[in-house]
TrEMBL record, chains A, B:
Span of domain HTH gntR-type: 3-71
Pfam families found in the cross-reference section: Aminotran_1_2, GntR
Domain of life where this protein originates: Bacteria
Organism lineage: Bacteria, Pseudomonadati, Pseudomonadota, Gammaproteobacteria, Enterobacterales
The keyword RNA-binding is assigned to this record: no
Keyword Transcription: yes
Entry protein name: GntR family transcriptional regulator
Length: 480, 480
């Protein structure tokens, strides 16, 4: 029996869905677009979509179009952790230090949270850097305003409109990456010994930061889809004299969720009620897959209680070390900390970013990266589902380039990483994302880089070692 | 009467001395060199020098050669301040903030401690920046080792040999300028509430830093030629539980002295005896006029008690924001602070500096700048002597690009600066160099930039306003 046009198109689309090119939940191309792309009639596309609906691969939503159905075989989400007590244990600095050290030759690493900087859409940025240097522009060699380039702060204010905020340059200060912004933010609102409530798991850099500043960390149960439990947080605020809440509501590191709007509002209300500051890490905000990107908690705040921290490290390149803080009502303190902590920020990279944005490259580049990461996510999720043992739980990121994986509880990812070192592969071990001894069987991997056959082989190899560890453990050998 | 050859030469030399081309105390060209330069015999040069000796313009020192005599009319040195009590008063942040803000249009400023970055010997650096960017070198866009570029640390270790230190890359960590190095150093050895002994006057950035970190500042009397009083420091260490001593022994900011070798040794011995750490700010070290540059206190320390902080901000360009710390025995803590405080340092500027040094431009450039600053110093000292009131006291820098001026005690330089603003001129007011309310009649000016007629006019204008203030005060008007 000859295959009809619509069956052919349905088959192409179903293959793309199965290969993960159109991940679960995403909107599929419109009927008009597919008709043009494949040179077939509107009716043919409609028939193809009806066929896929029958196969329960896609869902029609009135006035919105067609969406990929949630997968039946979709891996489970990582579990939510229970509430921890205040922790002051010595942090896992040795493990973190190993993670941030230089790469070994030929090492395939999934450790860092770095974006892909090899893409051609960054060329105009390196060109701008080159031109500014070539011109021997004295601004690039001189001390800048300690708050950073006025032009860049104006551009950032414009970019922030997408996140729902209406600021001007005066509300923003440039920092050495988001890291310095976070360090300043925490010190603006807390003194050593104060308690800071955080998501669990949390970015290890933030946990180390809080430890380094002598803060006590209170890990709040965090849902892999909805984010920090506002209910658990309320109990915590009732019980402890918490001074600040530190959250990454958009494209969370490591879980990848976007906290729903109403939960952001609830969180802010809670902070107002208990008079607590919020440090909002928005470093992955612009890499949220959906459009428009979620509004920041900062944008809902009219008291200057929320301190927004972000950078161009994930959207453009981390080596630039250009971040910013919008510290709400704490600007004076923040400027003092910046002045005394590192002085002004390097001028050349700031001015190059200004050029890059002004010439219209920024939005194009970020759109491209969002697409790449979303495609990579589907492929990587597919590989892990394929190579890792049954029962492996995987996060469902709504932005960014990081995947959180929960293995069988018999597996210690620290031990796994030591074995992987023999294969010149490294992962970020789960234990460093908690100060309370959690997540020993978890790991975080980065899927930003182009997913070559080498990467697939590395993922397969990780799967092999996990299977070995499990079977050894099954035969009674101790898994350390 | 015809002028003889030796009289002619003597007249040339005395003019140069009077114009400040050969400043007081400096070694004059050797007899052999002058003989060649002027095409005269050795005997003629010897006669010329004898003539100048008779005029008391030069002094012969056995086996060393001829030196310019201390000037008879030489302005007096600034006075040494008495010991202050521990201070916890609110620092002059508003004044400092005004100083570090953006320049007004056409403003002539003597405020910052910036070097001259307009010189051609920096061209190879901007070329290196340009080439690295042009190549789209991925290293310039990626996260670097948190300790900084290995190559750059190796080059810095090599540069440090001149300061008497034998280190390797493992002893050094790159920072965002000297400011971040100082902030890390202080936090390595002190906790909030601890007492830090400092020179008086001290760089306002360091004082603000200590205040920002919650330290108590103990200002030790400091001699404008010999540096911090080791005797007064001993009394202080006996009396107070001082945790650290923070000093700038070479080309001090703002006084410009080089602390003599034996006083450096005495300081270290004291620190050992009282088990106190030393934070050594060497940011102007390479700009010491004399050759070889003085050995750092760090180089005399074999216990890892001294934390060396420096940067390329004064030798190359501040806009690069590339500094370093050699934190002695505190490396692990220092790396943690760097990782949590700002993450790795921007890669592009580090790599460009490596190129600049490797291509042999560094020493040539620094030598040139030393010469320029030394010549500028003589000219600027001349202008101030000429335009400022009699009795003005002036420091005698042995390196760097900063002059410290003490006016009649009836003058408040804060008020002076407000009046100068009407002429679009600004100076660094003395008050910010102390936390104890000292130096209200002092000011610091920068003489790095090319000393054009505009600069001379600005200095003349400052003199005019000072004279006005004095005469008003003399006629009974209140000097606020």
């Amino acid at each position: 029996m000859a295959i009809t046009r619509y069956q052919n198109l349905a088959s192409i689309l179903s293959q793309r869905i199965e290969q993960g090119l159109y991940p679960a939940g995403i909107r599929l191309p419109s009927i008009r677009v597919l008709s043009k792309e494949h040179g077939v009639s509107i009716t043919t596309v409609q028939q193809a979509y009806r066929e896929l609906e029958d196969q329960q691969l896609v869902e029609a939503r009135p006035k919105s179009g067609y969406f990929v159905s949630p997968l039946k075989t979709r891996p489970e989400l990582p579990a939510v952790c229970s509430m921890s007590q205040c922790s002051l244990s010595i942090p896992q600095w040795d493990q973190v230090l190993e993670m941030v050290g230089p790469l070994k030759d030929g090492e395939i690493t999934f450790v860092s949270a770095a974006p892909d900087v090899s893409v051609s859409s960054l060329r105009p940025l390196t060109r701008a850097l080159s031109h500014l240097s070539q011109r021997h522009d004295l601004r690039t060699l001189s001390y800048d305003d300690v708050r950073g380039s006025l032009e860049l702060r104006e551009q950032i204010a414009r970019l922030l409109i997408d996140s729902g905020s209406h600021m001007d340059a005066g509300n923003i200060m440039i920092t050495n990456g988001c890291r310095e912004a976070l360090s300043i933010a925490v010190r603006c609102v807390c003194a050593p010994g104060d308690i800071v409530a955080v998501e669990s798991p949390s970015f290890h850099g933030s946990l180390q930061l809080l430890h380094g500043l002598g803060m006590k960390v209170l890990e709040i149960p965090t849902d892999p889809v909805n984010g920090i439990s506002v209910e658990a947080l309320e109990l915590a605020l009732d019980q402890w004299p918490v001074k600040a809440i530190m959250v990454t509501p958009t494209a969370h590191n490591p879980l990848g969720y976007n906290m729903p709007l109403e939960r952001r509002q609830a969180l802010l209300k809670l902070a107002q009620h208990y008079d607590v500051a919020i440090v909002e890490d928005d470093v992955y905000g612009e890499l949220s897959f959906g459009y428009p990107r979620p509004a920041t908690i900062t944008s809902m705040d009219d008291e200057g209680r929320v301190l927004l921290c972000s950078s161009f490290s994930k959207t453009l390149a981390p080596g630039l070390r250009v971040g910013w803080i919008a510290p709400g009502s704490y600007m004076n303190r923040a400027v003092h900390m910046k002045y005394t902590g590192s002085g002004s920020t390097a001028s050349l990279t700031q001015l190059a970013i200004v050029e890059f944005i002004k010439q219209g490259h920024y939005h194009k580049h970020v759109r491209r990266m969002r697409g790449q990461y979303q495609r990579n996510l589907a492929i990587m999720t597919g590989w892990i589902t394929k190579y890792f043992p049954c029962g492996t739980r995987i996060s469902r990121p709504q932005g960014g380039c990081l995947l959180w994986i929960e293995l069988d509880h018999g597996i210690d990812t620290q031990r796994l990483n030591a074995l992987l070192a023999e294969h010149n592969i490294s992962i970020a071990v789960g234990a460093v994302f908690s100060t309370a001894g959690k997540f020993h069987s978890c790991m975080r991997i980065n899927y930003a880089q182009p997913l070559t056959a080498d990467i697939e082989n590395a993922i397969r190899q990780i799967g092999v070692v996990i299977h070995q560890l499990l079977s050894r453990s099954g035969f009674g050998n101790s898994v350390k």
